[in-house]
Amino acid sequence: MLPRSRVFSALLVGLGVALMVAGLLTPKLIHADPRIPLEPADVTLRLVDPEAKTRLLSDGRILTSPVTRQIHVQLQDPASADNVTENVGVSLLRDSYQEDRDRLISATVWNLNLDRGSAEIQEPLTVRDQLVGPSTSAPEALGALWMHFPLHPEKRAYPVLDDTLRAPVTAEFIGEEEHDGRQVMHYRQDIKAQNVHEHYQNFFTSTEIDGEELFLFHSGTRDLYVDAATGVIINIEEDVHDFYGTKDAKPREDVLKFRGELTEEAVAQRLAHAAELPKAETVKIWGWALLGIGAVLTLLALVGAFRGRV
User: Fold this and answer.
1) What is the pTM of this model?
2) Rounded to whole angstroms, how far apart are CA atoms 235 and 45?
3) Which of 136, 157, 219, 231 could bond 149 through an S-S bridge, CB–CB 3.0 to 4.6 Å?
């Protein structure tokens, strides 16, 4: 029968080797690297302007009323360690006493595939106007970011999708801020007046007023506040002016004047969500700790085993 010291040393070697293997595998099995999290599966963001100006489709009147821009992000299958499919619904809705058909300003549903590492939009990419027709492709959006930034976003410009243009607009890095103890990166899209009809065509992108053909133009600024550790978008501030104008961008009729942002409560929820996500640094530390402890135990066990033979 083996001496107890030899048995104990053998068990200690097994434990040490197991800890070293766990330390080596931890960073690979726990994805706390630059990946879009798969939880929560549903997120709804609401930007509200209490005094937005919008144009009625029925008669062209301009209304001043509260308007909510809602973005609903739903993660779907297929999803893997590298990619995830998203369904994104975007709508503009008046909070007024108009009939339902006049309260809804616009609504689109997007289906896209994202690279969970870079957060870039991949194929397939389709968009459907709920008011005017079937799904169409949006090829200009490929390669852009949208509702996600990569882990540890850099202090540089990123191409970020503008869903009205269905094309990327550069988001320039503005600076860093602190929100509830977390570092937040500030990016800004400066959208010069662009002819939407030149990007795609539907019922809204052109019209005729008093015998003159006019085109939908989209302009404004969008400020994106992104958690520096996780890439989670903490807040969105939009100041949008859409109008019908001539080919040379001379305004004729306002379509939308909207200045909205997330509520303080929503911002707090986004910060809390970012704080709950696993950190790559923590996972790496645990991996190295397990590897170190396992190596020490194995070494001690081997030393004890050899001493037992003397």
Assistant:
1) 0.80
2) 9
3) 231
Strands (E) across the chain are located at: 42-55, 62-79, 83-94, 104-115, 121-129, 135-137, 158-162, 167-179, 182-195, 206-209, 212-227, 233-245, 251-261
Q: Cβ atoms within 10 A of the Cβ of 310, count?
A: 4
- Show the tokens assigned to 51: 């005094």
Greatest alpha-carbon pair distance for the chain in Å reads: 106
Q: Kindly report, residue by residue over 193-251, the tens digit of the pLDDT.
A: 999 999 999 889 999 988 999 999 999 999 999 999 989 999 999 999 999 999 999 99
Mean pLDDT of 23-37: 54
Task: Answer whether 240's CB lies under 8 Å from 218's CB.
Answer: yes
Looking up tokens 């009809």, which residue turns up?
A: 197
Q: Report the alpha-carbon distance of residue 192 to residue 196 in Å, rounded.
A: 12
The residue ranges of every structural domain in the chain are 42-278
Q: In whole angstroms, give the CA distance from residue 63 to residue 245.
A: 19
Q: CB neighbours of 259 closer than 8 A, spacing ≥ 6?
A: 49, 52, 238, 239, 240
Which two tokens mark 253?
A: 């009729």
- Residue 211 token pair: 């015998």
Contact (Cβ atoms closer than 8 angstroms) between residue 163 and residue 110: yes
Q: How many C-beta atoms lie closer than 10 Å to residue 53's C-beta?
A: 17
Q: Report the amino acid identity of residue 95.
A: D
